[in-house]
Amino acid sequence: MSQRGLFITLEGGEGAGKTTAMASIEAALREAGVDLLSTREPGGTALGESLRRCLLEPSTEAVAPMAELLMIFAARAQHLHERILPALHEGRWVLCDRFTDASFAYQGAGRQLGTAPVAALESMVQGELRPDVTILMDVPVEIGMDRARGRGALDRFEQEDLEFFARVRESYLERAARGGGRYYVIDASKPLAEVQQAIRGVVKELIACPSVLEDDS
Ligand code: T5A
Fold it and tell me: Which end of the chain is more exposed for a tag (fewer CB within 10 A), N or C?
């Protein structure tokens, strides 16, 4: 049996503090000697970053939800092929800022496409591969949007209304509640120092007992 690396994803609504959390998770893992690929979605490859620009740029054209979903999975297919799967097969750990939970939350729930098309693309593009660990940064929508607004100009997603983000949050929380042991939910409305401490606790746990993973992907 060959072993593959641990696949960790970080998720959350707008302004949850993922960027801040990514930096501290990455630093803690590297300090512990973990050979790590740190990456993000949409993006992570040249093609993925081009698609990211198309997806995030505010547009006067109303982008069809299905077109949005397909662009996200096109970026994901390239990301898996070029970076994520090779790293996991080499035994490296992968830390990814957003992955398919975001598609269920934003396109499935936010855009109201439902779970079926997202689940179908998930199987087609990922096969059996799912994240081993997902850290969900949960914050009430109003707090998250205030933080996002405080950062400056809003991207195409951030211009959506509060109902959209309420559906996104509900979807994330539902998936975490149903998702067995893979989700760690962090209360990201707390002061930054407390959030950082909670994240360090999760990372410590992962380093202390990394799962033995059969490389069947
Ligand atoms: N998307 C993505 C989909 O629709 N479907 C998909 O399948 C995928 C993969 C881009 C967009 O793509 C969409 C969803 C997204 O809208 P992104 O770049 O990850 O994805 O987008 P954002 O959520 O906008 O991520 P950001 O990096 O811009 O925001 P963060 O990381 O959540 O927030 P961050 O760390 O920048 O923090 C925001 C502000 O709050 C402060 C920070 O200092 C910063 O100013 N802050 C706190 N303040 C007080 N207390 C705390 N605890 C704080 N934590 C952070």
Answer: N
Task: Give 198 Cα–ligand 1 centroid separation in angstroms.
Answer: 18
pTM, two decimal places: 0.95
Q: Which residues pair with 184 in a beta bridge?
A: 135
Q: Which CATH number fits domain 2-209: 3.40.630.10, 1.10.287.70, 3.40.50.12280, 3.40.50.300?
A: 3.40.50.300
Q: Is 84 in the pocket of ligand 1 (CB under 6 A)?
A: no
Q: What is the pLDDT of residues 6-19, one digit of tens each?
A: 999 999 999 999 99
Nearest CA to ligand 1 atom 35: 17
Q: Which residues contact 98 (CB under 8 A, 6 or more apart)?
A: 9, 10, 11, 18, 40, 41, 42
| CA 13 to ligand 1: nearest atom | 23
Name the closest-CA residue to atom 55, ligand 1.
17
